[in-house]
Design brief:
Helix content is 9%, strand content 47%. By secondary structure, the chain is mainly beta. The chain folds into two domains: 594 residues, Maltoporin, Chain A, CATH 2.40.170; 94 residues, no CATH class. It has a 27-stranded antiparallel β-sheet that branches. Strands 2-1-4-3 form a four-stranded mixed β-sheet, with no helix packed on it. A hairpin with a 5-residue loop joins β5 and β6.
Length: 849
């Protein structure tokens, strides 16, 4: 799989620079390294934290020749991934976020349903938290059992915050225009109380992407009470209500027709005003209460209760027996006519795309007019003849709602016994997610009828197309529930333990975890297509999972370290793959079992005065995965739920980081990462129509082996020059390079049926089964900052940055094949893409006292 030709020179240069810099440091004298007081209790234990992140080595080398490896800050590669590589949609090591344990005050906040952390619900806490501990890889964790991507723990306790008041204002041209944050912290007062309050708000309208807007607020309260030297009670409560109007991907044809690489089909004009069809709203308060007991300076017990509840929703257009309202529908593109030799029609449509906003965007006024003209005859409710005054909506805007209740607990015990550090914990969740649709806007009509139009003409029975047979032909008005209504229920529990031990030049650790999870669906309406399996509770789906991991650090001397870590775990799949059609029935998908993750990594770390370096090789297999996609199938005139089971992935690669300080104030940083993220087997596919109980096929082989995982560059590199001025100012310049970015592939095009119509050697076969590689690209970023200390107690800070200084607007950072495709005409359903933003800036100013 690995093609070293393209990266040979880059890799050699990086290694030469890396090696040369190390050898230039060997003759330098050791100097004392100071500790980062990130956790006062752990520092008092003076025991090692073993991991391969390659950040700061917190130890006193003047007193200990071969010190343990302690790391609390973000390592260099992770910093670049977050602040410089994010524009290219880079995912560290190609991992999705379920491989990273996100924590608040040691509480795991990854969703039991998806495995993901919902950043939108607590993103504002980055303005609150005084400390975030991020550790990449398979190292030890004293908070819980983490996966191959490591963990990120955000400390939001009021007693951890620095005393003072801070007012900050920021402006940018990315997703929001203005942000204001006001925070106040008392620190731990003499009466044993600590209080922190934060209020933050941001907003922006069509800041960079046309038709988008954002509005978000954060309200935070932290309250701690120190009962005595052994007991602390801590409360954290926050809510981050937000509203975002989104962007969409589009075909290259649409970008070319509009001459706009940021074309967004999600919006249109209504009465001359911009309206977006895809608006996401979230308001989910979170609270956590912790009791922290430190009976002595070698023990700590932290027990917490937490709750996360509230709603999120996203809007979308629904329609009934009417033309598709999406402007980039394939029949509305000029290529649809050009491919049939209808040049005149194609030219006419091209002109409309280029000159008429209602052609290239959603025509809201037209949808409203069609609704108002659709007079529908229904029996009068009073039994007095016919009522013909109501207008039945052909188009509506619906809200797809998730009403979440997630409550849980966690308890963690830490104990030091000389060179042995023990950690153990238990945690659990009771999770209920109520999913349903409500009618947001009738778009000028009077009502909407609640039935499935795609099941209407199947001729099975009169109740067959009804979404709720207990209330047939129900008229739906604004705010009413309709369509589907069900719960996803999850009970989860875990116990884990870990031991860390240090002896001589060796540090080592081992950890075990056992977990159990039960999942069931509960439907609240009887659907006409599945009258016996849609309402009530499904079978209980149970998983028993485990994990084991360990690591070894060899301290060559006080400056050089060798590390090895390994991790094997099993975990439940995503819940949405467990049910054939969770919106409508309880039937369970076949072949969905626990995923198996095997991961290991080897690292070399160096830490000298003015010099840091890390070299890592990682290898991770994520096997037995399941996923589900929904798409419209023309042949069956229905939506299809398409499942893959038994899918295996490989993530392997190298990471190199070097940081060198020259002449005290000049810093050079280099980062290089090359990975191979690809599928390693041939999974099985099964597909079901959503408008009846027909299984389209079972155990169809999908030839996925050796295809790349799309959606992230697999080659990244960067070089930074930074100058730190003597009077509290700094400036830096970074050049980033991205490569090996592939489109996400359609599994149905990698089957025997997909190529059965072609003879061996036909060049069109590659058009069907080939995978597109997107062009490499680079960016240049600038950052600067300045701080002022006024009268010894006031602080005024300025910082800002420019990303993509050269305003490259031609870099594709996302591409995917549509699931809907035509074997006879591949260009009919074109790939969809997104372009990276051009020049963007940010400016922040804060005043602290």
């Amino acid at each position: 799989m690995i093609n070293f030709t393209k990266i040979k020179s880059l890799l050699c240069l990086a290694l030469l620079f890396f090696a040369g810099t190390i050898f230039s440091q060997v003759s330098q004298a050791d100097s004392t390294l100071t500790s980062d007081p990130s956790d006062s209790l752990d520092n008092s234990f003076n025991v090692p934290i073993f991991n391969s992140t390659g950040g700061d080595i917190d130890s006193d080398l003047g007193q200990q020749e071969s010190s343990s490896l302690l790391q609390s800050s973000r390592d260099l590669f992770s910093q670049f991934a977050i602040f410089h590589f994010n524009a290219a949609r880079y995912r560290i090591r190609g991992y999705s976020t379920e491989n990273l344990s996100m924590m608040l005050n040691g509480i795991d906040i990854n969703s039991p349903e998806t495995g993901f952390a919902a950043f939108g619900e607590w993103g504002g806490l980055f303005n609150v938290a005084p400390f975030s501990e991020y550790r990449l890889g398979n190292g030890a964790s004293r908070y819980g059992f983490s996966g191959p991507a490591g963990y990120n723990n955000i400390d939001t306790k009021a007693s951890s915050a620095r005393k003072g008041t801070r007012i900050a204002y920021g402006t940018t041209n990315r997703t929001y225009r203005n942000r204001l944050t006001i925070s106040h912290s008392t620190g731990m007062m003499q009466n044993g109380w600590a209080l922190k309050l934060v209020v933050s708000g941001s907003s922006g309208n069509q800041v960079y992407i046309p038709g988008t807007y954002s509005q978000g607020n954060t309200f935070y309260l932290g309250l701690d009470k120190k009962i005595n030297n052994k007991h602390l009670l801590s409360f954290t409560g926050y809510v981050s209500p937000s509203e975002f109007a989104g962007r969409t991907s589009a075909q290259l044809e649409a970008y070319e027709l509009t001459n706009d690489h940021y074309y967004n089909r999600a919006w249109g004009l209504q009465d001359g005003k911009v309206r977006n069809s895809t608006v996401r709203k979230t308001i989910r308060p979170t609270f956590m209460v912790s009791h922290i007991m430190t009976p002595n300076n070698t023990s700590k017990l932290t027990t917490s209760l937490f709750g996360n509840f509230g709603k999120s929703s996203v809007t979308g257009i629904n329609w009934n027996n009417s033309p598709n309202p999406q402007p980039d529908y394939y029949k509305y593109l000029p290529s649809y006519y050009y491919n049939q030799g209808l040049t005149e029609q194609g030219d006419a449509l091209t002109a409309l795309w280029q000159n008429d906003v209602n052609t290239r965007q959603i025509n809201w006024d037209r949808l409203i007019a069609m609704n108002q003209a659709n007079i529908y005859t229904i029996p009068s409710q009073a039994g007095q003849g016919l009522n013909t005054t109501d207008t039945r909506s052909r188009y509506i805007v619906e809200d797809r709602v998730e009403d979440l209740k997630n409550f849980g607990f966690t308890s963690v015990y830490n104990k030091r016994i000389e060179n042995l550090f023990l950690s153990a914990g238990i945690n659990g969740n009771i999770y209920r997610n109520h999913k349903y649709k409500t009618l947001n806007d009738l778009l000028g009509g009077t009502f909407w009828l609640d039935y499935d139009q795609f099941a209407q003409n199947l001729g099975v029975s009169s109740t067959f197309p009804q979404n709720n047979i207990n209330n047939p032909d129900q008229k739906i008005y604004k705010g009413d529930k309709f369509g589907y209504d069900f719960n996803i229920n999850i009970n989860r529990a875990q116990a884990w333990g870990q031991a860390e031990y240090s002896i001589g030049k060796f540090d080592m650790y081992g950890a075990l975890a056992l977990s159990t999870m039960q999942v069931w669906r509960e439907g609240f309406v009887a659907n006409g297509k599945f009258p016996t399996t849609s309402q009530g509770k499904s079978e209980l789906i149970s998983f028993m999972n485990y994990g084991v991991k360990g690591g070894l650090t060899y301290k060559i001397n006080g400056r050089n370290f060798l590390l090895a870590n390994a991790n094997f775990l099993t975990r439940p799949p995503e819940v949405n793959t467990m049910f054939i059609s969770p919106e409508t029935r309880n039937d369970i998908t076949r072949g969905v079992t626990s995923e198996k993750v095997t991961s290991y990594e080897f690292s070399y770390l160096a830490k000298y005065p003015g010099f840091k370096a890390r070299a890592t090789y990682y290898n991770t297999s994520i096997n037995n995965q399941s996923n589900m996609r929904i798409f419209w199938h023309d042949l069956y005139n229905a939506n299809v739920n398409y499942f893959l089971t038994g899918l295996n992935e490989k993530h392997q690669g190298v990471e190199l980081t070097v940081e060198k300080t020259l002449f005290t104030s000049h810093i050079l940083q280099g980062v290089f990462g090359y990975g191979q993220y690809y599928y390693t087997n041939r999974p099985k596919a099964q597909a079901w129509q959503t408008n009846n109980n027909t299984e389209l096929y079972t155990d169809k082989t999908v030839y996925y082996k050796n295809y790349y995982i799309g959606g992230t560059p697999q080659l990244v590199s960067a070089f930074t020059y930074k100058y730190m001025g003597k009077k509290f100012w700094n400036v830096s310049a970074t050049i980033n390079y991205f490569g090996e970015l592939y489109t996400q592939i359609n599994p149905d095009r990698r089957t025997e049926d997909a190529v059965a119509a072609y003879v061996d050697g036909d060049p069109q076969i590659n058009d069907v089964v080939g995978q597109q590689k997107l062009p490499d690209f680079y960016t240049v970023n600038l950052n600067a900052g300045k701080s002022f200390r006024i009268k010894g107690k006031y602080y005024l800070n300025f910082n800002g940055g420019i990303n993509n200084l050269l305003n490259n607007q031609s870099a594709l950072n996302l591409g995917y094949e549509q699931m809907r495709w035509d074997i006879g005409q591949l260009n009919r359903f074109q790939n969809k893409y997104q372009y990276m933003m051009g020049l963007t800036y940010r400016v922040n100013v804060s005043f602290s006292f």
